[in-house]
Design brief:
Distance between the termini: 5 Å
Radius of gyration: 15 Å
Shape: globular
Helix content: 55-70%
Order of helices and strands: HHHH
Largest sheet: none
Number of helices: 4
Number of domains: 1
Number of strands: 0
Strand content: under 5%
Structural class: mainly alpha
Amino acid sequence: MYGLSDEEIAAIREARIEAFAPAEVALLRMADALADRPSNVSDELYAELCRHFSEEQLIEFTASAALENFRVRYNRVFDVGSDGLYRKGLRFKHQ
């Protein structure tokens, strides 16, 4: 499966991550830590991530999160708004 359901997106927005699998919770915590200023992934969080993912996977996840953070911050300088790709009720999850 790919993508997130409307319910999963709502859960993330409302900080209700307990319904996600432990590996997903660790990734959500990492994404949140990387978006913080200054970004800081604690030793505890890194150890948790290493229990679920290989170093190669963590490199890929981190690169993706860093690229998204760059894009968002870059767009804010030029007041670039949402392109409206996500709207409640749209289904992007492949089953």
